[in-house]
Amino acid sequence: MAVNWRSDAHHRHDWRSKVPQVILAFWIIKILATTLGETGGDAVTMTLNLGYAVGSLIFLGFFAVTLAAQVAAKRYHPFLYWAVVVATTTVGTTMSDYLDRTVGLGYVKSSIMLFGGVLVVLFVWHRVMGRIEFEDITDRRDEVFYWLTILVSNTLGTALGDFTADDAGLGFERGALVFAALIALVAALHFFTKISDSVLFWAAYILTRPLGATLGDTLTKPHADGGLELSRITSSLVIAALMIVTVILTYRKAGQSPVASDSAAIRSA
Question: How far from 214 is each of 25, 91, 165, 221, 236, CA to CA, in Å?
Protein backbone atom coordinates (compact mmCIF):
# COMPACT_ATOMS: atom_id res chain seq x y z
CA MET A 1 0.00 0.00 0.00
CA ALA A 2 1.41 3.38 -0.99
CA VAL A 3 2.04 5.93 1.73
CA ASN A 4 0.79 9.44 0.97
CA TRP A 5 2.94 12.44 1.86
CA ARG A 6 -0.26 14.10 3.01
CA SER A 7 -3.20 12.36 4.63
CA ASP A 8 -6.53 12.23 2.77
CA ALA A 9 -8.16 14.06 5.65
CA HIS A 10 -5.76 16.95 5.16
CA HIS A 11 -5.51 17.07 1.40
CA ARG A 12 -6.91 15.51 -1.75
CA HIS A 13 -4.76 15.53 -4.86
CA ASP A 14 -6.10 17.90 -7.54
CA TRP A 15 -6.68 15.91 -10.73
CA ARG A 16 -5.72 18.99 -12.76
CA SER A 17 -2.22 19.01 -11.27
CA LYS A 18 0.67 18.61 -13.70
CA VAL A 19 2.91 16.86 -11.20
CA PRO A 20 2.49 13.45 -9.52
CA GLN A 21 1.02 12.73 -6.13
CA VAL A 22 3.78 12.34 -3.56
CA ILE A 23 3.63 8.71 -2.49
CA LEU A 24 6.36 6.16 -1.72
CA ALA A 25 6.80 5.30 -5.42
CA PHE A 26 7.51 8.97 -6.13
CA TRP A 27 10.58 8.90 -3.88
CA ILE A 28 11.81 5.59 -5.31
CA ILE A 29 11.63 6.95 -8.86
CA LYS A 30 13.20 10.24 -7.73
CA ILE A 31 16.23 8.49 -6.22
CA LEU A 32 16.62 6.42 -9.40
CA ALA A 33 16.44 9.64 -11.44
CA THR A 34 19.09 11.38 -9.33
CA THR A 35 21.39 8.36 -9.54
CA LEU A 36 20.88 8.31 -13.31
CA GLY A 37 21.70 12.01 -13.42
CA GLU A 38 25.08 11.32 -11.81
CA THR A 39 26.06 8.34 -13.95
CA GLY A 40 24.60 9.84 -17.14
CA GLY A 41 26.24 13.21 -16.61
CA ASP A 42 29.62 11.60 -15.93
CA ALA A 43 29.19 9.31 -18.95
CA VAL A 44 28.89 12.32 -21.26
CA THR A 45 31.56 14.54 -19.67
CA MET A 46 34.10 11.87 -18.70
CA THR A 47 33.53 8.63 -20.61
CA LEU A 48 32.79 10.43 -23.88
CA ASN A 49 35.34 13.10 -22.85
CA LEU A 50 33.17 16.06 -23.91
CA GLY A 51 34.03 18.10 -20.84
CA TYR A 52 31.82 19.90 -18.32
CA ALA A 53 31.05 22.99 -20.42
CA VAL A 54 29.94 21.04 -23.51
CA GLY A 55 28.11 18.50 -21.36
CA SER A 56 26.24 21.31 -19.58
CA LEU A 57 25.16 22.79 -22.93
CA ILE A 58 23.95 19.39 -24.17
CA PHE A 59 21.90 18.74 -21.06
CA LEU A 60 20.61 22.32 -20.92
CA GLY A 61 19.29 21.75 -24.44
CA PHE A 62 17.66 18.48 -23.33
CA PHE A 63 16.19 20.27 -20.32
CA ALA A 64 14.81 23.12 -22.48
CA VAL A 65 13.11 20.71 -24.90
CA THR A 66 11.55 18.49 -22.22
CA LEU A 67 10.50 21.47 -20.07
CA ALA A 68 8.83 23.16 -23.05
CA ALA A 69 6.82 20.01 -23.70
CA GLN A 70 5.94 19.68 -20.01
CA VAL A 71 4.75 23.29 -19.74
CA ALA A 72 2.77 23.01 -22.97
CA ALA A 73 0.98 19.87 -21.78
CA LYS A 74 -2.51 20.29 -20.35
CA ARG A 75 -2.18 17.71 -17.58
CA TYR A 76 0.24 15.36 -15.86
CA HIS A 77 2.03 12.83 -18.08
CA PRO A 78 4.32 10.41 -16.19
CA PHE A 79 7.13 9.83 -18.70
CA LEU A 80 7.24 13.47 -19.73
CA TYR A 81 7.42 14.65 -16.11
CA TRP A 82 10.21 12.23 -15.20
CA ALA A 83 12.12 13.07 -18.38
CA VAL A 84 12.30 16.68 -17.14
CA VAL A 85 13.44 15.50 -13.70
CA VAL A 86 16.23 13.43 -15.29
CA ALA A 87 17.18 16.45 -17.40
CA THR A 88 17.52 18.60 -14.28
CA THR A 89 19.68 15.96 -12.57
CA THR A 90 22.03 15.54 -15.55
CA VAL A 91 22.40 19.28 -16.14
CA GLY A 92 22.76 19.73 -12.38
CA THR A 93 25.64 17.24 -12.37
CA THR A 94 27.53 18.90 -15.21
CA MET A 95 26.84 22.46 -14.05
CA SER A 96 27.97 21.67 -10.51
CA ASP A 97 31.14 19.98 -11.76
CA TYR A 98 31.81 22.97 -14.02
CA LEU A 99 31.48 25.40 -11.10
CA ASP A 100 33.46 23.23 -8.70
CA ARG A 101 36.30 22.09 -10.95
CA THR A 102 36.53 24.22 -14.10
CA VAL A 103 35.67 27.59 -12.54
CA GLY A 104 37.43 26.53 -9.34
CA LEU A 105 34.83 27.53 -6.75
CA GLY A 106 35.18 24.27 -4.86
CA TYR A 107 32.43 22.30 -3.17
CA VAL A 108 31.96 24.57 -0.13
CA LYS A 109 31.62 27.87 -2.00
CA SER A 110 29.40 26.42 -4.71
CA SER A 111 27.19 24.67 -2.12
CA ILE A 112 26.71 27.91 -0.18
CA MET A 113 25.98 29.84 -3.38
CA LEU A 114 23.49 27.24 -4.66
CA PHE A 115 21.79 26.89 -1.27
CA GLY A 116 21.30 30.63 -1.29
CA GLY A 117 19.89 30.28 -4.81
CA VAL A 118 17.30 27.74 -3.62
CA LEU A 119 16.25 30.03 -0.76
CA VAL A 120 15.93 33.00 -3.12
CA VAL A 121 13.74 31.04 -5.56
CA LEU A 122 11.48 29.80 -2.74
CA PHE A 123 11.27 33.30 -1.25
CA VAL A 124 10.30 34.88 -4.57
CA TRP A 125 7.83 32.04 -5.23
CA HIS A 126 6.11 32.70 -1.90
CA ARG A 127 6.10 36.47 -2.46
CA VAL A 128 4.60 36.17 -5.95
CA MET A 129 2.10 33.36 -5.37
CA GLY A 130 1.47 33.64 -1.63
CA ARG A 131 2.32 29.95 -1.19
CA ILE A 132 4.88 27.29 -2.05
CA GLU A 133 3.37 24.21 -3.64
CA PHE A 134 4.76 20.78 -4.39
CA GLU A 135 1.80 18.63 -5.38
CA ASP A 136 -1.11 20.63 -6.78
CA ILE A 137 0.64 22.51 -9.60
CA THR A 138 -2.15 23.90 -11.79
CA ASP A 139 -0.99 27.49 -12.33
CA ARG A 140 1.66 28.22 -14.98
CA ARG A 141 3.59 30.50 -12.60
CA ASP A 142 3.68 27.80 -9.93
CA GLU A 143 4.99 25.39 -12.54
CA VAL A 144 7.83 27.72 -13.56
CA PHE A 145 8.89 28.21 -9.92
CA TYR A 146 8.55 24.45 -9.31
CA TRP A 147 10.97 23.51 -12.08
CA LEU A 148 13.38 26.33 -11.29
CA THR A 149 13.56 25.15 -7.68
CA ILE A 150 14.20 21.59 -8.85
CA LEU A 151 16.95 22.66 -11.25
CA VAL A 152 18.83 24.71 -8.64
CA SER A 153 18.30 22.13 -5.87
CA ASN A 154 19.59 19.28 -8.04
CA THR A 155 22.70 21.32 -8.85
CA LEU A 156 23.13 22.01 -5.12
CA GLY A 157 22.68 18.32 -4.33
CA THR A 158 25.54 17.33 -6.62
CA ALA A 159 27.92 19.74 -4.87
CA LEU A 160 26.78 18.51 -1.43
CA GLY A 161 27.31 14.89 -2.42
CA ASP A 162 30.83 15.57 -3.70
CA PHE A 163 31.67 17.65 -0.61
CA THR A 164 30.57 14.88 1.74
CA ALA A 165 32.39 12.14 -0.15
CA ASP A 166 35.61 14.05 -0.92
CA ASP A 167 36.20 17.09 1.30
CA ALA A 168 34.57 15.59 4.41
CA GLY A 169 36.40 12.32 3.74
CA LEU A 170 33.38 10.05 4.23
CA GLY A 171 33.64 8.36 0.85
CA PHE A 172 30.75 7.42 -1.40
CA GLU A 173 29.20 4.57 0.60
CA ARG A 174 29.24 6.36 3.97
CA GLY A 175 28.13 9.56 2.26
CA ALA A 176 25.12 7.71 0.86
CA LEU A 177 24.30 6.41 4.35
CA VAL A 178 24.48 9.94 5.79
CA PHE A 179 21.99 11.31 3.25
CA ALA A 180 19.72 8.27 3.58
CA ALA A 181 19.64 8.88 7.35
CA LEU A 182 18.83 12.57 6.83
CA ILE A 183 15.95 11.66 4.49
CA ALA A 184 14.67 9.21 7.12
CA LEU A 185 14.83 12.06 9.66
CA VAL A 186 12.78 14.32 7.38
CA ALA A 187 10.23 11.51 6.95
CA ALA A 188 9.99 11.15 10.74
CA LEU A 189 9.46 14.90 11.09
CA HIS A 190 6.65 14.64 8.55
CA PHE A 191 4.84 11.92 10.46
CA PHE A 192 5.47 13.09 14.02
CA THR A 193 5.58 16.90 13.89
CA LYS A 194 3.49 19.72 12.49
CA ILE A 195 6.27 21.25 10.41
CA SER A 196 5.02 22.53 7.04
CA ASP A 197 4.65 19.80 4.41
CA SER A 198 6.13 22.14 1.80
CA VAL A 199 9.27 22.76 3.89
CA LEU A 200 9.78 19.05 4.53
CA PHE A 201 9.07 18.09 0.91
CA TRP A 202 11.70 20.46 -0.47
CA ALA A 203 14.18 19.43 2.23
CA ALA A 204 13.72 15.77 1.26
CA TYR A 205 13.83 16.65 -2.44
CA ILE A 206 17.20 18.40 -2.04
CA LEU A 207 18.61 15.48 -0.01
CA THR A 208 17.68 12.87 -2.62
CA ARG A 209 20.11 14.51 -5.05
CA PRO A 210 23.30 14.00 -3.00
CA LEU A 211 22.02 10.53 -2.12
CA GLY A 212 21.76 9.75 -5.84
CA ALA A 213 25.14 11.39 -6.49
CA THR A 214 26.92 9.25 -3.89
CA LEU A 215 25.09 6.10 -5.03
CA GLY A 216 26.02 6.80 -8.65
CA ASP A 217 29.67 7.40 -7.73
CA THR A 218 29.67 4.22 -5.66
CA LEU A 219 28.69 2.30 -8.78
CA THR A 220 31.10 3.90 -11.26
CA LYS A 221 34.16 5.29 -9.49
CA PRO A 222 37.43 3.27 -9.52
CA HIS A 223 38.14 0.71 -6.80
CA ALA A 224 40.97 2.91 -5.53
CA ASP A 225 38.43 5.68 -4.85
CA GLY A 226 36.00 3.36 -3.08
CA GLY A 227 33.72 2.65 -6.06
CA LEU A 228 32.68 -0.54 -7.84
CA GLU A 229 34.17 0.67 -11.17
CA LEU A 230 31.13 -0.32 -13.23
CA SER A 231 30.64 1.16 -16.69
CA ARG A 232 28.97 4.59 -16.56
CA ILE A 233 27.05 3.94 -19.77
CA THR A 234 25.88 0.46 -18.75
CA SER A 235 24.92 1.67 -15.26
CA SER A 236 22.94 4.55 -16.77
CA LEU A 237 21.05 2.22 -19.12
CA VAL A 238 20.20 -0.21 -16.32
CA ILE A 239 19.00 2.59 -14.00
CA ALA A 240 16.93 4.12 -16.82
CA ALA A 241 15.31 0.73 -17.45
CA LEU A 242 14.48 0.38 -13.74
CA MET A 243 12.93 3.86 -13.79
CA ILE A 244 10.74 3.02 -16.79
CA VAL A 245 9.56 -0.25 -15.23
CA THR A 246 8.77 1.46 -11.90
CA VAL A 247 6.80 4.24 -13.62
CA ILE A 248 4.79 1.71 -15.63
CA LEU A 249 4.06 -0.48 -12.59
CA THR A 250 3.13 2.51 -10.44
CA TYR A 251 0.62 3.99 -12.85
CA ARG A 252 -0.73 0.65 -14.07
CA LYS A 253 -1.54 -0.10 -10.42
CA ALA A 254 -3.39 3.21 -10.30
CA GLY A 255 -5.42 2.20 -13.35
CA GLN A 256 -3.63 4.59 -15.71
CA SER A 257 -1.51 4.12 -18.84
CA PRO A 258 1.63 6.26 -18.80
CA VAL A 259 2.43 5.33 -22.40
CA ALA A 260 -1.01 6.39 -23.68
CA SER A 261 -1.05 9.62 -21.68
CA ASP A 262 2.40 10.63 -22.89
CA SER A 263 1.48 9.88 -26.49
CA ALA A 264 -1.48 12.22 -26.07
CA ALA A 265 0.84 14.85 -24.58
CA ILE A 266 3.15 14.71 -27.59
CA ARG A 267 0.22 15.09 -30.02
CA SER A 268 -1.25 18.03 -28.10
CA ALA A 269 2.05 19.87 -27.56
Answer: 21, 16, 7, 10, 14
